[in-house]
Write a structure and sequence with these properties.
With about 350 residues, the chain is an alpha+beta fold. The chain folds into 2 domains: about 5-70 and about 175-275, no CATH class; about 85-110 and about 120-170, no CATH class. Helix content is about 15%, strand content about 25%. It is built from 5 helices and 12 strands. The protein has helices at about 5-20, 200-210, 250-255, 275-285, 315-320; strands at about 85-95, 100, 125-130, 140-145, 145-160, 160-170, 220, 240-245, 265-270, 295-300, 305-310, 330-335. A 5-stranded mixed β-barrel has the order 1-2-3-6-5. Strands 7-8-9 form a 3-stranded mixed sheet, with helices on one face. The longest helix is centred in the first third of the chain and has 16 residues, at about 5-20. The two termini are about 40 Å apart.
Length: about 350
Amino acid sequence: MNRDVDDVLAEAGARWRADQPSPPEPDLDRMLRPRRPKRWVPVLAAASVAAIAVAVIQVLPHRDQAPSVAPGKEHPLLVRDGDKVQVEGQVVAAPSAPVYYCLPIATTLPLDVNQQTKPPACTPGQQIEVTGVDVNRLEDLTTVLGVKSGTARLVGTWNAGRIAVEQQSAPTPPAPGEPDKVPCPPPAGGWQPGDASTAITPALDAFVKARADQLQTPWIGWPEGSPNPKPGQPPNKPSVLVVGVAHGDVEAIRKALDPLVAANLCVTKVRVSQNEIAAQRAAVEKLPLDDLHITGIGVGVGDRPVIISLRILDQRAADVFRPIGLDNLTFQPLVRPAP
Protein backbone atom coordinates (compact mmCIF):
# COMPACT_ATOMS: atom_id res chain seq x y z
CA MET A 1 0.00 0.00 0.00
CA ASN A 2 1.17 3.51 -0.77
CA ARG A 3 2.81 5.11 2.28
CA ASP A 4 1.04 8.45 1.87
CA VAL A 5 -2.35 6.76 1.73
CA ASP A 6 -1.50 4.84 4.92
CA ASP A 7 -0.76 8.13 6.68
CA VAL A 8 -4.01 9.73 5.51
CA LEU A 9 -6.10 6.76 6.58
CA ALA A 10 -4.34 6.41 9.92
CA GLU A 11 -4.90 10.09 10.74
CA ALA A 12 -8.56 9.90 9.75
CA GLY A 13 -9.00 6.76 11.84
CA ALA A 14 -7.40 8.46 14.86
CA ARG A 15 -9.80 11.38 14.62
CA TRP A 16 -12.78 9.05 14.44
CA ARG A 17 -11.60 6.89 17.33
CA ALA A 18 -11.19 9.93 19.57
CA ASP A 19 -14.97 10.39 19.45
CA GLN A 20 -15.85 6.74 20.02
CA PRO A 21 -16.08 4.44 23.09
CA SER A 22 -12.84 2.41 22.75
CA PRO A 23 -13.23 0.61 19.40
CA PRO A 24 -10.48 -1.76 18.23
CA GLU A 25 -7.74 -0.62 15.89
CA PRO A 26 -8.82 -0.69 12.21
CA ASP A 27 -7.14 -3.09 9.79
CA LEU A 28 -5.59 -0.50 7.51
CA ASP A 29 -4.01 -3.11 5.26
CA ARG A 30 -7.45 -4.30 4.19
CA MET A 31 -8.83 -0.99 2.98
CA LEU A 32 -7.64 -1.02 -0.59
CA ARG A 33 -7.67 -4.76 -1.16
CA PRO A 34 -10.64 -6.15 -3.11
CA ARG A 35 -13.12 -8.11 -1.06
CA ARG A 36 -12.43 -11.71 -0.17
CA PRO A 37 -14.83 -14.15 1.48
CA LYS A 38 -15.01 -13.24 5.15
CA ARG A 39 -14.63 -15.31 8.28
CA TRP A 40 -16.16 -13.32 11.10
CA VAL A 41 -14.62 -13.00 14.54
CA PRO A 42 -16.23 -15.70 16.72
CA VAL A 43 -18.93 -14.53 19.08
CA LEU A 44 -18.12 -15.91 22.52
CA ALA A 45 -21.07 -15.34 24.85
CA ALA A 46 -21.91 -11.62 24.50
CA ALA A 47 -18.90 -10.37 22.57
CA SER A 48 -19.56 -6.99 21.00
CA VAL A 49 -18.95 -6.03 17.40
CA ALA A 50 -16.83 -3.00 16.62
CA ALA A 51 -18.42 0.01 14.97
CA ILE A 52 -17.13 0.83 11.52
CA ALA A 53 -15.22 4.07 11.21
CA VAL A 54 -15.58 6.36 8.25
CA ALA A 55 -11.82 6.06 7.88
CA VAL A 56 -12.03 2.27 7.67
CA ILE A 57 -13.47 1.62 4.25
CA GLN A 58 -15.07 -1.81 4.64
CA VAL A 59 -15.69 -3.63 1.35
CA LEU A 60 -17.99 -6.39 2.56
CA PRO A 61 -20.77 -8.36 0.87
CA HIS A 62 -23.04 -5.93 -0.95
CA ARG A 63 -26.75 -5.79 -1.47
CA ASP A 64 -27.27 -8.34 -4.27
CA GLN A 65 -25.28 -11.12 -2.61
CA ALA A 66 -27.86 -12.02 0.03
CA PRO A 67 -31.15 -13.73 -0.88
CA SER A 68 -34.17 -11.58 -0.18
CA VAL A 69 -37.42 -12.69 1.41
CA ALA A 70 -40.57 -11.97 -0.55
CA PRO A 71 -43.57 -10.92 1.57
CA GLY A 72 -45.33 -13.98 2.95
CA LYS A 73 -42.55 -16.34 1.82
CA GLU A 74 -40.06 -18.38 3.81
CA HIS A 75 -36.42 -17.38 3.95
CA PRO A 76 -34.54 -19.22 1.16
CA LEU A 77 -31.89 -20.40 3.65
CA LEU A 78 -34.43 -21.86 6.13
CA VAL A 79 -33.86 -25.56 6.91
CA ARG A 80 -36.45 -27.94 8.39
CA ASP A 81 -36.25 -31.63 9.26
CA GLY A 82 -36.43 -33.63 6.05
CA ASP A 83 -34.78 -30.93 3.91
CA LYS A 84 -31.74 -31.61 1.72
CA VAL A 85 -28.69 -29.74 3.03
CA GLN A 86 -25.03 -29.37 2.18
CA VAL A 87 -21.87 -28.85 4.23
CA GLU A 88 -18.18 -28.69 3.37
CA GLY A 89 -15.09 -29.16 5.46
CA GLN A 90 -13.42 -31.55 7.87
CA VAL A 91 -14.83 -34.98 8.73
CA VAL A 92 -13.51 -36.98 11.69
CA ALA A 93 -14.04 -40.71 12.27
CA ALA A 94 -12.82 -42.32 15.49
CA PRO A 95 -13.07 -46.07 16.18
CA SER A 96 -16.37 -47.13 17.81
CA ALA A 97 -17.74 -43.58 17.61
CA PRO A 98 -20.08 -41.70 15.27
CA VAL A 99 -18.60 -39.91 12.26
CA TYR A 100 -18.69 -36.15 12.67
CA TYR A 101 -18.59 -33.16 10.38
CA CYS A 102 -16.59 -30.46 12.16
CA LEU A 103 -18.02 -26.96 11.98
CA PRO A 104 -15.24 -24.56 10.90
CA ILE A 105 -15.28 -22.54 14.10
CA ALA A 106 -12.23 -20.62 15.24
CA THR A 107 -11.04 -21.48 18.74
CA THR A 108 -9.68 -19.18 21.43
CA LEU A 109 -7.87 -22.00 23.25
CA PRO A 110 -4.15 -21.26 23.75
CA LEU A 111 -1.68 -23.23 21.64
CA ASP A 112 0.55 -25.57 23.62
CA VAL A 113 3.71 -25.91 21.54
CA ASN A 114 4.94 -28.71 23.80
CA GLN A 115 1.87 -30.89 23.55
CA GLN A 116 2.24 -34.41 22.26
CA THR A 117 0.61 -35.60 19.05
CA LYS A 118 -3.13 -35.88 19.50
CA PRO A 119 -5.76 -37.43 17.24
CA PRO A 120 -7.87 -35.02 15.17
CA ALA A 121 -11.09 -33.86 16.81
CA CYS A 122 -13.75 -31.23 16.30
CA THR A 123 -13.84 -28.16 18.51
CA PRO A 124 -15.91 -29.21 21.54
CA GLY A 125 -19.61 -28.74 20.85
CA GLN A 126 -18.98 -27.77 17.22
CA GLN A 127 -19.76 -30.98 15.37
CA ILE A 128 -22.66 -32.58 13.52
CA GLU A 129 -23.14 -36.33 13.35
CA VAL A 130 -23.18 -37.63 9.78
CA THR A 131 -24.13 -41.10 8.58
CA GLY A 132 -23.45 -42.72 5.23
CA VAL A 133 -19.96 -41.22 4.79
CA ASP A 134 -17.35 -43.33 3.01
CA VAL A 135 -14.42 -42.38 5.23
CA ASN A 136 -11.87 -43.91 2.88
CA ARG A 137 -13.00 -41.55 0.12
CA LEU A 138 -12.30 -38.39 2.10
CA GLU A 139 -9.90 -35.93 0.51
CA ASP A 140 -6.49 -35.50 2.20
CA LEU A 141 -7.23 -38.54 4.36
CA THR A 142 -4.93 -38.98 7.36
CA THR A 143 -4.90 -41.37 10.32
CA VAL A 144 -3.51 -40.30 13.69
CA LEU A 145 -3.67 -42.72 16.62
CA GLY A 146 -6.45 -44.63 14.88
CA VAL A 147 -8.61 -41.57 14.14
CA LYS A 148 -9.24 -40.83 10.48
CA SER A 149 -9.74 -37.32 9.21
CA GLY A 150 -10.22 -35.68 5.84
CA THR A 151 -12.37 -33.21 3.95
CA ALA A 152 -15.47 -33.51 1.79
CA ARG A 153 -18.58 -31.86 0.45
CA LEU A 154 -21.57 -33.71 1.86
CA VAL A 155 -25.18 -33.54 0.69
CA GLY A 156 -27.92 -35.32 2.60
CA THR A 157 -31.12 -35.10 4.61
CA TRP A 158 -31.26 -33.01 7.79
CA ASN A 159 -33.14 -34.59 10.67
CA ALA A 160 -32.95 -33.89 14.41
CA GLY A 161 -29.53 -32.28 14.15
CA ARG A 162 -27.96 -35.03 12.03
CA ILE A 163 -27.25 -35.44 8.32
CA ALA A 164 -27.92 -38.69 6.48
CA VAL A 165 -25.41 -38.34 3.65
CA GLU A 166 -26.49 -39.28 0.14
CA GLN A 167 -23.78 -37.58 -1.94
CA GLN A 168 -20.09 -37.22 -1.15
CA SER A 169 -17.49 -35.37 -3.22
CA ALA A 170 -14.36 -33.29 -2.91
CA PRO A 171 -14.80 -29.82 -1.37
CA THR A 172 -15.55 -27.04 -3.81
CA PRO A 173 -12.39 -25.01 -4.55
CA PRO A 174 -12.74 -21.48 -3.15
CA ALA A 175 -13.77 -18.98 -5.77
CA PRO A 176 -11.43 -16.02 -6.27
CA GLY A 177 -12.67 -12.93 -4.49
CA GLU A 178 -13.93 -10.09 -6.63
CA PRO A 179 -14.61 -6.52 -5.59
CA ASP A 180 -18.19 -5.43 -5.17
CA LYS A 181 -19.77 -3.83 -8.19
CA VAL A 182 -20.10 -0.07 -8.10
CA PRO A 183 -23.88 0.58 -8.02
CA CYS A 184 -23.65 3.66 -10.28
CA PRO A 185 -23.21 3.92 -14.04
CA PRO A 186 -19.91 5.48 -15.14
CA PRO A 187 -20.05 9.24 -15.73
CA ALA A 188 -19.54 10.77 -19.15
CA GLY A 189 -15.97 9.98 -20.12
CA GLY A 190 -15.84 6.97 -17.79
CA TRP A 191 -14.28 6.47 -14.37
CA GLN A 192 -11.00 8.32 -14.07
CA PRO A 193 -7.77 6.64 -12.90
CA GLY A 194 -6.89 7.37 -9.33
CA ASP A 195 -6.99 6.23 -5.75
CA ALA A 196 -10.38 7.05 -4.23
CA SER A 197 -9.08 6.49 -0.71
CA THR A 198 -7.37 9.88 -0.93
CA ALA A 199 -10.87 11.39 -0.73
CA ILE A 200 -11.03 10.46 2.95
CA THR A 201 -10.54 13.88 4.49
CA PRO A 202 -11.62 15.57 7.72
CA ALA A 203 -14.36 17.34 5.76
CA LEU A 204 -15.79 14.07 4.45
CA ASP A 205 -15.48 12.51 7.90
CA ALA A 206 -17.44 15.37 9.46
CA PHE A 207 -20.08 15.33 6.71
CA VAL A 208 -20.81 11.62 7.13
CA LYS A 209 -20.78 11.64 10.94
CA ALA A 210 -23.17 14.60 11.02
CA ARG A 211 -25.65 12.59 8.90
CA ALA A 212 -25.52 9.17 10.58
CA ASP A 213 -29.33 9.09 10.46
CA GLN A 214 -29.22 9.47 6.66
CA LEU A 215 -26.04 7.92 5.29
CA GLN A 216 -24.06 4.71 5.41
CA THR A 217 -20.34 4.35 5.93
CA PRO A 218 -18.53 5.03 2.62
CA TRP A 219 -16.68 2.21 0.93
CA ILE A 220 -14.35 1.72 -2.03
CA GLY A 221 -15.49 -0.06 -5.20
CA TRP A 222 -13.50 -1.17 -8.24
CA PRO A 223 -15.66 -0.86 -11.38
CA GLU A 224 -13.09 -2.53 -13.65
CA GLY A 225 -12.21 -5.42 -11.36
CA SER A 226 -9.44 -6.16 -8.91
CA PRO A 227 -6.38 -3.94 -9.10
CA ASN A 228 -3.02 -5.62 -9.56
CA PRO A 229 -0.43 -2.91 -9.03
CA LYS A 230 3.29 -3.52 -8.92
CA PRO A 231 4.88 -3.35 -5.47
CA GLY A 232 5.11 0.26 -4.32
CA GLN A 233 2.82 1.48 -7.11
CA PRO A 234 -0.72 2.89 -6.76
CA PRO A 235 -3.70 0.81 -7.96
CA ASN A 236 -3.65 0.31 -11.71
CA LYS A 237 -7.44 0.43 -12.10
CA PRO A 238 -9.92 3.16 -11.19
CA SER A 239 -11.55 3.09 -7.79
CA VAL A 240 -14.75 4.80 -6.67
CA LEU A 241 -15.85 6.19 -3.32
CA VAL A 242 -19.42 4.97 -2.74
CA VAL A 243 -21.82 6.65 -0.31
CA GLY A 244 -25.23 5.11 0.41
CA VAL A 245 -28.20 7.38 1.16
CA ALA A 246 -30.99 5.83 3.22
CA HIS A 247 -33.03 8.98 3.86
CA GLY A 248 -33.04 12.23 1.92
CA ASP A 249 -32.55 13.26 -1.67
CA VAL A 250 -29.76 11.33 -3.37
CA GLU A 251 -29.03 14.08 -5.87
CA ALA A 252 -28.89 16.75 -3.17
CA ILE A 253 -26.42 14.63 -1.18
CA ARG A 254 -24.32 14.08 -4.29
CA LYS A 255 -24.15 17.80 -4.98
CA ALA A 256 -23.14 18.47 -1.38
CA LEU A 257 -20.41 15.80 -1.58
CA ASP A 258 -18.99 16.86 -4.94
CA PRO A 259 -16.78 19.68 -3.59
CA LEU A 260 -15.61 17.43 -0.73
CA VAL A 261 -14.58 14.40 -2.79
CA ALA A 262 -11.67 14.87 -5.19
CA ALA A 263 -12.11 11.39 -6.67
CA ASN A 264 -14.61 9.20 -8.50
CA LEU A 265 -17.87 9.39 -6.56
CA CYS A 266 -20.99 7.22 -6.54
CA VAL A 267 -23.98 8.24 -4.42
CA THR A 268 -26.68 5.57 -4.35
CA LYS A 269 -29.93 4.71 -2.58
CA VAL A 270 -29.84 2.16 0.28
CA ARG A 271 -32.44 1.01 2.79
CA VAL A 272 -30.79 1.69 6.14
CA SER A 273 -28.56 4.37 7.66
CA GLN A 274 -25.62 4.06 10.05
CA ASN A 275 -27.92 4.64 13.02
CA GLU A 276 -30.37 2.00 11.83
CA ILE A 277 -27.52 -0.46 11.23
CA ALA A 278 -26.31 0.14 14.80
CA ALA A 279 -29.82 -0.50 16.14
CA GLN A 280 -30.13 -3.75 14.17
CA ARG A 281 -26.72 -4.91 15.36
CA ALA A 282 -27.58 -4.09 18.97
CA ALA A 283 -30.83 -6.07 18.66
CA VAL A 284 -28.92 -9.09 17.37
CA GLU A 285 -26.35 -8.86 20.16
CA LYS A 286 -29.16 -9.07 22.74
CA LEU A 287 -30.25 -12.47 21.42
CA PRO A 288 -29.19 -15.77 23.07
CA LEU A 289 -26.12 -16.11 20.84
CA ASP A 290 -24.95 -19.46 22.20
CA ASP A 291 -28.41 -21.02 22.09
CA LEU A 292 -28.82 -19.98 18.46
CA HIS A 293 -25.30 -21.18 17.61
CA ILE A 294 -24.36 -17.74 16.31
CA THR A 295 -20.65 -17.84 15.55
CA GLY A 296 -20.04 -14.29 14.36
CA ILE A 297 -21.59 -10.91 13.64
CA GLY A 298 -20.29 -8.51 11.03
CA VAL A 299 -21.36 -5.18 9.58
CA GLY A 300 -21.03 -4.23 5.93
CA VAL A 301 -22.89 -2.01 3.49
CA GLY A 302 -25.95 -2.20 1.27
CA ASP A 303 -29.53 -3.10 2.03
CA ARG A 304 -28.82 -5.93 4.51
CA PRO A 305 -25.56 -4.82 6.12
CA VAL A 306 -25.77 -6.76 9.41
CA ILE A 307 -24.19 -10.12 8.62
CA ILE A 308 -24.73 -13.14 10.88
CA SER A 309 -22.71 -16.34 10.76
CA LEU A 310 -24.47 -19.26 12.44
CA ARG A 311 -24.70 -23.04 12.40
CA ILE A 312 -28.11 -23.27 10.72
CA LEU A 313 -31.11 -21.06 10.05
CA ASP A 314 -33.77 -23.43 11.35
CA GLN A 315 -37.34 -22.56 12.30
CA ARG A 316 -36.39 -21.65 15.86
CA ALA A 317 -33.69 -19.24 14.75
CA ALA A 318 -35.96 -17.74 12.08
CA ASP A 319 -38.68 -17.09 14.66
CA VAL A 320 -36.20 -15.33 16.97
CA PHE A 321 -34.85 -13.12 14.18
CA ARG A 322 -38.28 -12.33 12.74
CA PRO A 323 -38.97 -9.27 14.98
CA ILE A 324 -35.73 -7.69 13.72
CA GLY A 325 -36.74 -8.54 10.16
CA LEU A 326 -35.42 -11.54 8.25
CA ASP A 327 -35.07 -9.39 5.14
CA ASN A 328 -33.03 -6.81 7.07
CA LEU A 329 -30.23 -9.28 7.82
CA THR A 330 -27.69 -11.27 5.82
CA PHE A 331 -27.35 -14.86 7.05
CA GLN A 332 -24.29 -17.02 6.43
CA PRO A 333 -25.24 -20.47 7.77
CA LEU A 334 -22.74 -23.32 7.75
CA VAL A 335 -25.53 -25.85 7.08
CA ARG A 336 -27.29 -24.64 3.94
CA PRO A 337 -30.10 -25.93 1.74
CA ALA A 338 -28.73 -28.07 -1.09
CA PRO A 339 -29.40 -26.77 -4.60
